[in-house]
Inverse folding.
C-alpha cells in the first residue's frame, strides 16, 4: 500500500493521512493508491501538513508498517529514547522498528 | 570572554524580530516551504525526523554560566528536558515547535546567544581550540580572531547564498585540537620572523563525501589584513565554486579542481584589489575584542598539589584534565559519554549544574569540545576533588577522555533525516562492551568516531577507528575505517573492506583493538601501530 | 504590491538589456544583463557607456549575483544596478548592501514587507561600499576610515 506522511506545520510532529485528517499514529494511515500527489498538494496548500511525501507500507498484525526503517523510526520515535516514543510503555516497540 | 555591546545586541534583537516575522509569514501562507526553508535554516531551524530541530551557535565553543543555564532552561521550557552538544561546538534541541522558535531565539538573545547561520549555505559557527586561553602551548588566544570573524560573517550580504555551507576553525598552537585542516578554511595564528602575530591560511579541507585535508595557501597574513584576505578567499569561492552539483559544491572541490596554486593566485589577485576598498576593520577593533579575552585573576598562591588518595579520583585526574599555562591550575573535561549513554546529550539539570560549576570553579567559563564534551578551562588544582565529587554525583564524572568510550557519534537515524543508519546504538554497544571487559583502559588513547551517513558529522574519516553507517537495501550496515586523525598529524581513515551488521561492527571494533594490543610496541597508540604495520594485519583478522 | 523598486532619480533605460556576449560584440547598447555564469569583470572596460546593468537571479539560492554587483560597484560603476528574476523580499536588503539600487522581481512584493526589509537592521558589521558606516567604525570614531 501507499501511505502519505508529513509533518505538522506548526508543531513539526510527524503525521499520517487517515483519509480525512492527519494523525500522529501510523496505524491510522490509509492506502492513498495513486492519489498521493493530489492529496499532498491540496493539504500542503491548506497548510494542514508540511513537506508531505508518499511511502510504501504494508499491513501487519499491528496495523500499518512503513517499508523503510527511516519511516518506522519517524512513526515511533528515537529507538535510543523509548521514553520519548509514542509507545513508552511497550517494550516491543523498538523491535518493530528494526 | 566576549560580551555584547549595544551594537551586537541590536543585531541579534533585529534578527529575532526578522525571524518572528518570517515564521508568521510562513504560518500565514505568505511564504511557501521552498521559500521559507533557506530562511529557517539560516536561523538553525531544521525539519528533522520527529520535529523541528534548532541548532544554537556557541561561538568558538565558549560560554559562561548564565548562558549554559539558559541552555538548560530552554531545554525545560521548549524541549524535552535535554539537548545535544555537536561536533561543531553547537547545541541542538530535537523537539521544537515552529511557533515557539522565535521565543527561543528571544530567550537566547537575552543571554547574548543566537542561532544565526547555524545552517544554510552560508558561513557557519566559527570553531576553535577548546583549551584556548588556558593551554600551555598556545602562541596566543585564538578567540579574538574567531570573534572578529564571527562579526564579519554575521549577515554578510555577499556570502549568504554560497554554493554550499562554509566552516571556519581558528587555532593558535602547533597542537591541533580543533581539526583545523578539515575545515573549509583553517586559520592558525602564528608568529612571523619578527615575532609579530599573523595568520596562516589553510583552505579547502573537509570531511563529507569527498574528504580532503586543506593545503596551506598563505603562511602569513598580517592581522590588519585578516578580514580582507578572508573576504578574497570567499569571493573567489562564491564566484567560481560549483553550483551544478551539490556534492561538488564545497570549496574543497574548487581548490582541488583548480589546484591549490591557481586558487591561491586568484585569491591573491582578489586580495590585491580588495586592499584598495577599505573593508578591513580598524586595528583598534581587534584590540577592543582582545581586551575581553585577558586572563582571569589567577590565584598565584593556590596550592600546586593534587591529593590523589582516592584512586577513582586519581584515574579521573589522569584521564580528564589537561595542563594549564598556570602551574597550579588545570583544564578539566566533563565527559558527556557515560558508559552506554548517548554521546553529547546533557539533561537540563546537568546543564544547570555545569553552569554552576563553571561559575564556582572556572571563572565563570565553560567550553564545548568538538568531541561533544564540556571543559571547565581554569580550575585550581586545589578544587579538583570537590569538583569531581559533584560531577560523579550528577553522572558527569566518567574518566574516559580520548579513550574508546569517548566516542563521537552524530545523532544518526534516530533523529536525523539525512542519516542512513543509526549511530547512537552502535556507540552505546561499543562503550558498554569495552567498559565491561576493562579493555578500554588497556587501549589507552583511541579515538572512535561514528557517522550515520556520508556527510560525516560524526567525523568518521578522522577517527583512529571510524564507522560509517550506510543503507544496504533498507538494512543498516556499517563500514569500518582505520587510521584517521584530526590532530596536527591529520590523516584520513581507510575502509577495511566489506561492511558489517550492527552487532558485527561491534565485534569488528574489538577485533581491530585486539590486533593493536597484540602488535603494539613501546608506548604506541592504536594510530601509531596502524601506521607502522598497515592495514593488512587488521584485514587478516577481520576477514581472514 | 510592488512590481519594481527603484532608488534612483534619473530616468530609467527604456530599451531591453542585451546579453553580455552580444554587448561585447556590438558597441551601442547601454543596457546589459548578467547571468550567474557570466564574469562581471568582462564589462569593466565598458562601464562608462553603460547606464543599466541587470543581474539575473534565476533562483534566489544562486548567490553569484551578489559578488557580481560588488565587483561592478568597486570598479566605479555608477549607473543603475538592477536585480531581476527570483528576487524575494528576504533577499533585497542584502542586495541593496551589495550595490543594487533597483529591483524587478518575477513576483510582486508586499510593500510593507519591503519597508520592513530595508529598515530591519539598525547597523551593519561589514563595509561593502554601500555608504553605510560599519559597526566596527562606529565603535572607533577616531579610526582612519571611520
Amino acid at each position: 500500500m501507499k501511505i502519505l506522511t508529513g509533518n505538522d506545520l506548526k508543531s513539526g510532529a510527524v503525521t499520517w493521512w487517515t483519509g480525512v485528517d492527519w494523525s500522529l499514529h501510523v496505524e491510522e494511515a490509509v492506502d492513498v493508491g495513486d492519489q498521493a500527489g493530489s492529496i499532498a498538494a491540496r493539504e500542503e496548500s491548506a497548510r494542514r501538513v508540511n513537506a508531505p511525501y508518499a511511502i510504501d507500507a504494508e499491513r501487519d498484525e499491528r496495523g500499518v508498517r512503513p517499508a523503510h526503517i527511516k519511516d518506522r523510526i519517524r512513526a515511533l520515535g528515537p529507538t535510543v529514547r523509548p521514553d520519548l516514543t509514542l509507545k513508552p510503555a511497550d517494550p516491543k516497540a523498538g523491535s518493530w522498528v528494526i | 570572554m566576549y560580551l555584547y555591546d549595544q551594537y551586537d545586541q541590536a543585531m541579534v534583537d533585529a534578527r529575532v524580530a526578522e525571524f518572528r516575522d518570517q515564521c508568521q509569514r510562513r504560518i500565514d501562507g505568505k511564504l511557501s516551504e521552498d521559500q521559507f526553508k533557506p530562511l529557517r535554516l539560516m536561523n538553525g531551524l531544521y525539519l528533522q525526523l520527529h520535529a523541528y530541530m534548532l541548532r544554537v551557535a556557541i561561538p568558538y565553543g565558549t560560554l559562561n554560566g548564565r548562558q549554559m543555564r539558559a541552555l538548560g532552561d530552554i531545554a525545560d521550557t521548549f524541549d524535552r528536558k535535554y539537548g545535544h552538544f555537536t561536533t561543531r561546538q553547537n547545541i541542538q534541541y530535537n523537539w521544537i515547535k515552529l511557533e515557539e522558535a522565535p521565543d527561543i531565539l528571544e530567550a537566547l538573545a537575552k543571554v547574548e546567544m543566537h542561532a544565526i547561520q547555524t545552517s544554510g549555505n552560508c558561513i557557519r559557527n566559527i570553531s576553535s581550540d577548546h583549551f584556548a586561553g588556558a593551554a600551555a602551548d598556545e602562541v596566543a588566544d585564538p578567540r579574538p580572531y574567531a570573534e572578529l570573524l564571527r562579526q564579519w560573517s554575521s549577515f554578510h550580504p555577499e556570502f549568504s547564498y554560497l554554493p554550499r555551507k562554509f566552516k571556519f576553525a581558528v587555532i593558535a598552537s602547533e597542537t591541533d585540537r580543533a581539526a583545523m585542516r578539515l575545515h573549509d578554511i583553517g586559520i592558525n595564528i602564528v608568529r612571523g620572523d619578527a615575532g609579530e602575530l599573523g595568520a596562516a591560511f589553510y583552505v579547502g579541507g573537509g570531511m563529507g563525501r569527498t574528504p580532503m585535508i586543506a593545503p596551506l595557501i598563505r603562511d602569513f597574513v598580517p592581522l590588519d589584513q585578516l578580514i580582507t584576505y578572508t573576504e578574497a578567499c570567499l569571493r573567489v569561492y562564491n564566484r567560481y565554486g560549483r553550483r551544478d552539483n551539490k556534492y561538488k559544491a564545497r570549496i574543497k572541490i574548487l581548490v582541488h579542481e583548480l589546484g591549490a596554486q591557481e586558487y591561491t593566485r586568484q585569491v591573491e589577485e582578489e586580495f590585491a584589489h580588495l586592499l584598495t576598498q577599505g573593508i578591513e576593520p580598524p586595528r583598534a577593533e581587534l584590540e577592543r575584542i582582545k581586551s575581553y579575552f585577558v586572563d582571569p585573576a589567577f590565584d598565584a598562591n593556590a596550592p600546586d598539589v593534587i591529593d590523589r588518595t582516592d584512586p577513582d579520583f586519581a584515574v579521573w585526574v589522569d584521564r580528564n584534565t589537561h595542563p594549564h599555562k598556570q602551574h597550579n591550575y588545570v583544564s578539566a573535561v566533563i565527559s558527556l559519554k557515560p558508559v552506554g549513554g548517548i554521546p553529547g546529550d546533557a539533561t537540563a539539570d546537568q546543564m544547570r549544574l555545569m553552569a554552576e560549576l563553571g561559575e564556582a570553579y572556572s571563572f565563570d567559563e565553560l567550553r564545548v569540545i568538538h568531541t561533544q564534551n564540556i571543559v571547565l578551562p581554569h580550575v585550581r588544582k586545589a578544587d579538583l576533588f570537590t569538583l569531581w565529587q559533584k560531577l560523579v554525583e550528577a553522572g558527569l564524572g566518567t574518566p574516559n577522555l580520548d579513550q574508546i568510550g569517548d566516542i563521537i557519534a552524530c545523532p544518526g537515524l534516530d533523529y536525523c533525516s539525512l542519516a542512513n543508519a543509526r549511530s547512537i546504538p552502535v556507540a552505546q554497544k561499543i562503550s558498554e562492551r569495552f567498559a565491561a571487559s576493562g579493555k578500554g583502559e588497556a587501549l589507552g588513547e583511541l579515538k572512535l568516531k561514528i557517522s550515520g551517513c556520508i556527510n560525516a558529522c560524526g567525523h568518521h574519516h578522522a577517527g583512529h577507528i571510524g564507522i560509517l553507517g550506510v543503507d544496504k537495501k533498507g538494512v543498516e550496515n556499517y563500514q569500518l575505517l582505520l587510521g584517521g586523525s584530526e590532530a596536527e598529524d591529520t590523516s584520513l581513515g581507510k575502509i577495511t573492506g566489506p561492511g558489517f551488521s550492527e552487532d558485527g561492527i561491534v565485534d569488528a571494533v574489538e577485533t581491530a583493538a585486539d590486533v593493536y594490543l597484540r602488535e603494539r610496541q613501546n608506548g604506541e597508540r592504536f594510530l601509531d601501530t596502524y601506521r607502522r604495520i598497515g592495514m593488512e594485519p587488521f584485514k587478516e583478522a577481520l576477514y581472514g | 504590491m510592488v512590481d519594481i523598486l527603484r532608488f534612483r532619480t534619473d530616468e530609467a533605460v527604456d530599451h531591453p538589456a542585451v546579453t553580455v556576449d552580444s554587448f561585447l560584440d556590438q558597441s551601442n547598447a547601454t543596457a546589459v544583463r548578467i547571468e550567474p555564469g557570466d564574469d562581471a569583470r568582462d564589462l569593466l572596460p565598458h562601464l562608462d557607456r553603460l547606464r543599466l546593468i541587470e543581474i539575473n537571479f534565476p533562483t534566489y539560492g544562486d548567490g553569484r549575483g551578489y559578488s557580481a554587483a560588488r565587483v561592478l560597484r568597486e570598479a566605479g560603476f555608477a549607473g543603475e544596478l538592477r536585480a531581476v528574476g527570483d528576487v524575494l523580499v528576504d533577499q533585497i536588503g542584502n542586495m541593496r548592501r551589495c550595490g543594487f539600487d533597483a529591483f524587478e522581481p518575477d513576483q510582486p512584493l508586499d510593500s510593507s514587507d519591503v519597508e520592513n526589509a530595508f529598515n530591519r537592521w539598525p547597523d551593519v558589521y561589514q563595509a561593502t561600499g554601500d555608504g553605510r558606516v560599519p559597526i566596527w567604525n562606529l565603535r572607533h570614531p577616531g579610526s582612519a576610515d571611520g
